[in-house]
Amino acid sequence: MGLSRHHIFPFVNLSGILPGLISILLSLAFLLLTSLQGNTTPILTLTFIDVGEGDAIYLENPGHCNFLIDTGNPKSGVKVLSTLVQMGISRIDHLILTHPHLDHMGGVFTVAQLLPVSRFYDNGEDLSLHSKTHDMARWYQDLVRKSPRYSVLKTGHRFECPPLTLEVLWPPRPSITKDWNTNSLVLMVSFGAFRCLLMADANLTTERELLKASAPLKAHILRVGHHGARDAASQAFLSAVSPEIAIISVDGGNIHGYPDPKTLRRIQESHARLFRTDRQGTITIQAHPDGTYRVFTERP
Ligand SMILES: [Zn+2]
Q1: How far is the CA of 144 from the centre of ligand 1 (A)?
Q2: Which of 21, 54, 221, 276 fits 73 for a cystine, CB–CB 3.0-4.6 Å?
Q3: Interval between CA 105 and ligand 1 midpoint (Å)
Q4: pTM metric for this prediction
Q5: What number of CA atoms fall less than 13 Å from residue 207's CA on the CB side?
Q6: CA quadruple 264, 267, 273, 274: dihedral positive or negative?
Q7: How far is the CA of 149 from the centre of ligand 1 (A)?
Q8: How far is the CA of 112 from the centre of ligand 1 (A)?
Q9: How confident is the model over 14-54, as pLDDT tens digits?
Protein backbone atom coordinates (compact mmCIF):
# COMPACT_ATOMS: atom_id res chain seq x y z
CA MET A 1 0.00 0.00 0.00
CA GLY A 2 1.59 3.22 -1.08
CA LEU A 3 1.41 6.44 0.81
CA SER A 4 -0.75 9.09 -0.65
CA ARG A 5 0.65 12.61 -1.34
CA HIS A 6 -1.41 13.77 1.57
CA HIS A 7 0.49 11.46 3.96
CA ILE A 8 3.93 12.48 2.73
CA PHE A 9 3.24 16.23 3.19
CA PRO A 10 0.64 16.21 5.91
CA PHE A 11 0.88 19.94 6.69
CA VAL A 12 1.55 21.38 3.27
CA ASN A 13 -1.16 22.63 0.98
CA LEU A 14 0.74 24.59 -1.67
CA SER A 15 -2.28 26.28 -3.16
CA GLY A 16 -3.16 27.59 0.31
CA ILE A 17 0.28 29.05 1.24
CA LEU A 18 1.37 30.36 -2.14
CA PRO A 19 -0.01 33.89 -1.68
CA GLY A 20 1.62 34.04 1.79
CA LEU A 21 4.93 32.76 0.42
CA ILE A 22 4.94 35.36 -2.36
CA SER A 23 4.17 38.06 0.17
CA ILE A 24 7.10 36.95 2.40
CA LEU A 25 9.50 36.85 -0.58
CA LEU A 26 8.40 40.33 -1.67
CA SER A 27 8.93 41.62 1.88
CA LEU A 28 12.44 40.09 1.98
CA ALA A 29 13.28 41.67 -1.39
CA PHE A 30 12.04 45.03 -0.12
CA LEU A 31 14.13 44.71 3.08
CA LEU A 32 17.20 43.78 1.03
CA LEU A 33 16.70 46.77 -1.28
CA THR A 34 16.13 49.10 1.69
CA SER A 35 19.29 47.89 3.43
CA LEU A 36 21.33 48.21 0.23
CA GLN A 37 19.99 51.72 -0.20
CA GLY A 38 20.87 52.46 3.44
CA ASN A 39 24.45 51.41 2.82
CA THR A 40 24.84 53.68 -0.18
CA THR A 41 23.04 56.79 1.12
CA PRO A 42 25.79 58.93 2.65
CA ILE A 43 25.24 60.06 6.23
CA LEU A 44 27.63 62.28 8.14
CA THR A 45 27.88 61.63 11.86
CA LEU A 46 29.12 64.42 14.10
CA THR A 47 29.50 63.57 17.76
CA PHE A 48 30.14 66.32 20.31
CA ILE A 49 31.46 64.20 23.16
CA ASP A 50 30.65 65.40 26.68
CA VAL A 51 34.20 65.79 28.03
CA GLY A 52 33.39 68.08 30.96
CA GLU A 53 35.84 70.96 30.64
CA GLY A 54 37.09 71.01 27.06
CA ASP A 55 36.14 69.84 23.63
CA ALA A 56 36.22 66.67 21.54
CA ILE A 57 34.31 66.20 18.28
CA TYR A 58 34.21 62.99 16.26
CA LEU A 59 33.26 63.18 12.60
CA GLU A 60 32.66 60.26 10.30
CA ASN A 61 31.74 59.81 6.66
CA PRO A 62 31.04 56.07 7.11
CA GLY A 63 33.17 53.75 5.02
CA HIS A 64 35.33 56.64 3.79
CA CYS A 65 37.11 58.70 6.46
CA ASN A 66 36.96 59.91 10.03
CA PHE A 67 38.29 62.85 12.03
CA LEU A 68 38.78 63.50 15.72
CA ILE A 69 38.92 67.21 16.47
CA ASP A 70 40.40 67.78 19.95
CA THR A 71 40.64 65.16 22.64
CA GLY A 72 39.18 66.59 25.87
CA ASN A 73 41.39 67.31 28.89
CA PRO A 74 43.92 64.96 30.56
CA LYS A 75 41.15 63.62 32.83
CA SER A 76 38.48 63.13 30.17
CA GLY A 77 40.75 61.67 27.45
CA VAL A 78 39.72 58.24 28.79
CA LYS A 79 36.06 59.12 28.21
CA VAL A 80 36.85 60.17 24.61
CA LEU A 81 38.66 56.87 24.05
CA SER A 82 35.89 54.76 25.61
CA THR A 83 33.20 56.61 23.62
CA LEU A 84 35.07 55.93 20.36
CA VAL A 85 35.64 52.28 21.25
CA GLN A 86 31.95 51.86 22.12
CA MET A 87 31.12 53.33 18.70
CA GLY A 88 33.27 50.61 17.13
CA ILE A 89 36.04 52.99 16.06
CA SER A 90 39.40 51.25 15.79
CA ARG A 91 41.42 53.91 13.95
CA ILE A 92 41.53 57.70 13.53
CA ASP A 93 42.42 58.89 10.02
CA HIS A 94 42.90 62.58 10.92
CA LEU A 95 43.48 63.81 14.48
CA ILE A 96 43.25 67.60 14.58
CA LEU A 97 44.22 69.58 17.67
CA THR A 98 42.78 73.09 17.34
CA HIS A 99 45.29 74.67 19.76
CA PRO A 100 47.56 73.40 22.52
CA HIS A 101 45.47 74.31 25.58
CA LEU A 102 45.04 71.37 27.93
CA ASP A 103 41.23 71.22 27.71
CA HIS A 104 41.62 70.48 23.96
CA MET A 105 44.85 68.55 23.60
CA GLY A 106 45.19 66.97 27.08
CA GLY A 107 43.40 63.75 26.08
CA VAL A 108 45.81 63.09 23.21
CA PHE A 109 48.17 61.23 25.56
CA THR A 110 45.45 58.62 26.14
CA VAL A 111 43.67 58.55 22.78
CA ALA A 112 46.70 58.58 20.46
CA GLN A 113 48.56 55.91 22.39
CA LEU A 114 45.70 53.43 22.44
CA LEU A 115 44.09 54.05 19.04
CA PRO A 116 46.15 54.05 15.84
CA VAL A 117 46.24 57.55 14.30
CA SER A 118 47.15 58.00 10.61
CA ARG A 119 47.83 61.76 10.64
CA PHE A 120 48.26 64.47 13.30
CA TYR A 121 47.58 68.19 12.74
CA ASP A 122 47.50 71.36 14.81
CA ASN A 123 47.74 75.13 14.34
CA GLY A 124 51.54 75.20 14.69
CA GLU A 125 51.42 77.42 17.80
CA ASP A 126 54.92 78.34 18.94
CA LEU A 127 55.69 76.08 21.92
CA SER A 128 59.45 76.60 21.97
CA LEU A 129 59.35 78.71 25.12
CA HIS A 130 56.86 76.43 26.88
CA SER A 131 58.51 73.16 25.94
CA LYS A 132 61.56 74.21 27.93
CA THR A 133 59.59 75.08 31.05
CA HIS A 134 56.44 72.93 30.96
CA ASP A 135 56.60 69.14 30.91
CA MET A 136 53.20 68.82 29.23
CA ALA A 137 54.35 70.96 26.25
CA ARG A 138 57.53 68.88 25.97
CA TRP A 139 55.59 65.60 26.00
CA TYR A 140 53.13 67.03 23.46
CA GLN A 141 56.05 67.90 21.17
CA ASP A 142 57.42 64.35 21.59
CA LEU A 143 54.12 62.59 20.89
CA VAL A 144 52.56 64.82 18.21
CA ARG A 145 54.98 67.22 16.60
CA LYS A 146 57.95 64.90 16.27
CA SER A 147 55.74 62.35 14.52
CA PRO A 148 56.61 61.99 10.80
CA ARG A 149 52.85 62.06 10.25
CA TYR A 150 52.38 65.56 11.70
CA SER A 151 51.45 68.71 9.69
CA VAL A 152 50.49 72.31 10.46
CA LEU A 153 47.11 73.53 9.20
CA LYS A 154 46.32 77.05 8.05
CA THR A 155 43.65 78.96 6.12
CA GLY A 156 42.79 77.34 2.81
CA HIS A 157 43.74 73.75 3.70
CA ARG A 158 40.97 71.40 2.59
CA PHE A 159 40.32 67.76 3.41
CA GLU A 160 38.31 66.15 0.62
CA CYS A 161 36.38 62.98 1.38
CA PRO A 162 33.32 63.26 -0.91
CA PRO A 163 30.73 64.40 -0.17
CA LEU A 164 32.52 65.56 3.01
CA THR A 165 34.83 68.56 2.90
CA LEU A 166 36.62 70.03 5.90
CA GLU A 167 38.05 73.47 5.25
CA VAL A 168 40.37 75.45 7.49
CA LEU A 169 39.11 79.05 7.73
CA TRP A 170 41.62 80.29 10.33
CA PRO A 171 44.47 81.09 11.13
CA PRO A 172 46.36 82.18 7.99
CA ARG A 173 49.67 81.38 9.71
CA PRO A 174 50.80 79.96 13.06
CA SER A 175 50.98 82.24 16.13
CA ILE A 176 49.29 85.10 14.26
CA THR A 177 48.55 86.74 17.64
CA LYS A 178 49.91 86.21 21.15
CA ASP A 179 46.57 84.84 22.33
CA TRP A 180 46.28 81.07 21.92
CA ASN A 181 42.47 81.16 21.82
CA THR A 182 42.46 83.71 18.98
CA ASN A 183 44.82 81.42 17.05
CA SER A 184 42.54 78.34 17.35
CA LEU A 185 41.83 76.41 14.16
CA VAL A 186 38.39 77.33 12.79
CA LEU A 187 36.91 74.58 10.62
CA MET A 188 33.96 74.49 8.25
CA VAL A 189 32.45 71.06 7.75
CA SER A 190 30.49 70.67 4.49
CA PHE A 191 28.56 67.57 3.54
CA GLY A 192 26.74 68.35 0.31
CA ALA A 193 24.41 71.20 1.25
CA PHE A 194 24.91 70.68 5.01
CA ARG A 195 27.28 73.02 6.89
CA CYS A 196 28.67 73.01 10.43
CA LEU A 197 31.10 75.63 11.72
CA LEU A 198 33.53 74.59 14.46
CA MET A 199 35.04 77.55 16.33
CA ALA A 200 37.17 75.77 18.99
CA ASP A 201 38.25 78.56 21.43
CA ALA A 202 38.22 81.31 18.80
CA ASN A 203 37.00 84.63 20.17
CA LEU A 204 35.74 88.08 19.14
CA THR A 205 39.10 88.96 17.53
CA THR A 206 38.96 85.84 15.36
CA GLU A 207 35.31 86.50 14.51
CA ARG A 208 36.15 90.07 13.42
CA GLU A 209 38.99 88.81 11.20
CA LEU A 210 36.77 86.16 9.61
CA LEU A 211 34.06 88.76 8.92
CA LYS A 212 36.66 91.16 7.51
CA ALA A 213 37.99 88.44 5.19
CA SER A 214 34.42 87.62 4.03
CA ALA A 215 34.99 83.99 4.98
CA PRO A 216 32.10 81.65 4.06
CA LEU A 217 30.47 81.43 7.50
CA LYS A 218 26.83 80.48 6.90
CA ALA A 219 26.09 77.16 8.59
CA HIS A 220 23.19 75.06 9.90
CA ILE A 221 25.12 74.31 13.07
CA LEU A 222 27.57 76.45 15.03
CA ARG A 223 29.86 75.00 17.67
CA VAL A 224 30.10 78.28 19.63
CA GLY A 225 33.62 79.56 20.29
CA HIS A 226 35.40 79.43 23.64
CA HIS A 227 32.74 77.44 25.52
CA GLY A 228 30.24 80.31 25.23
CA ALA A 229 32.47 82.75 27.14
CA ARG A 230 31.78 86.49 27.03
CA ASP A 231 34.40 86.93 24.28
CA ALA A 232 32.57 84.73 21.75
CA ALA A 233 29.52 84.82 19.46
CA SER A 234 29.07 88.51 18.71
CA GLN A 235 25.77 89.61 17.23
CA ALA A 236 27.43 90.40 13.86
CA PHE A 237 29.06 86.98 13.79
CA LEU A 238 25.86 85.16 14.71
CA SER A 239 23.97 86.97 12.00
CA ALA A 240 26.64 86.02 9.40
CA VAL A 241 26.56 82.35 10.43
CA SER A 242 22.79 82.36 10.93
CA PRO A 243 22.78 78.95 12.66
CA GLU A 244 19.66 76.88 13.31
CA ILE A 245 21.47 75.03 16.10
CA ALA A 246 24.15 76.36 18.48
CA ILE A 247 26.23 73.91 20.51
CA ILE A 248 28.27 74.83 23.58
CA SER A 249 30.78 72.32 24.93
CA VAL A 250 31.10 73.20 28.62
CA ASP A 251 31.52 71.72 32.09
CA GLY A 252 28.64 72.25 34.53
CA GLY A 253 29.52 74.64 37.37
CA ASN A 254 32.99 75.37 35.95
CA ILE A 255 35.27 77.86 37.71
CA HIS A 256 35.35 80.19 34.68
CA GLY A 257 31.61 80.90 34.78
CA TYR A 258 31.10 79.65 31.17
CA PRO A 259 28.83 80.17 29.38
CA ASP A 260 28.37 83.89 29.87
CA PRO A 261 24.73 85.05 30.32
CA LYS A 262 25.18 87.84 27.73
CA THR A 263 26.51 85.37 25.17
CA LEU A 264 23.54 83.10 25.90
CA ARG A 265 21.19 86.06 25.37
CA ARG A 266 22.79 86.86 22.00
CA ILE A 267 22.37 83.22 20.95
CA GLN A 268 18.74 83.28 22.09
CA GLU A 269 18.11 86.49 20.13
CA SER A 270 19.61 84.85 17.03
CA HIS A 271 16.77 82.26 17.29
CA ALA A 272 19.23 79.37 17.17
CA ARG A 273 18.22 76.37 19.28
CA LEU A 274 20.84 75.83 21.96
CA PHE A 275 22.32 72.49 23.04
CA ARG A 276 24.91 72.22 25.85
CA THR A 277 27.05 69.22 26.75
CA ASP A 278 26.72 70.00 30.49
CA ARG A 279 22.94 69.62 30.19
CA GLN A 280 22.30 67.27 27.25
CA GLY A 281 25.50 65.21 27.57
CA THR A 282 26.99 63.92 24.33
CA ILE A 283 25.26 65.46 21.30
CA THR A 284 25.12 63.62 17.98
CA ILE A 285 24.14 65.06 14.60
CA GLN A 286 23.30 62.88 11.61
CA ALA A 287 23.36 64.92 8.42
CA HIS A 288 22.51 64.22 4.79
CA PRO A 289 23.92 65.81 1.63
CA ASP A 290 20.56 67.48 0.92
CA GLY A 291 21.15 69.61 4.04
CA THR A 292 18.66 67.80 6.31
CA TYR A 293 19.88 66.60 9.69
CA ARG A 294 18.72 65.14 13.00
CA VAL A 295 19.99 65.87 16.52
CA PHE A 296 20.24 63.13 19.17
CA THR A 297 21.19 63.87 22.76
CA GLU A 298 22.36 61.64 25.61
CA ARG A 299 19.94 63.39 27.99
CA PRO A 300 16.71 65.23 27.11
ZN1 LIG B 1 38.81 75.49 25.59
Answers
A1: 19
A2: 54
A3: 9
A4: 0.86
A5: 24
A6: negative
A7: 25
A8: 19
A9: 444 444 444 444 444 444 443 444 446 789 999 999 999 99
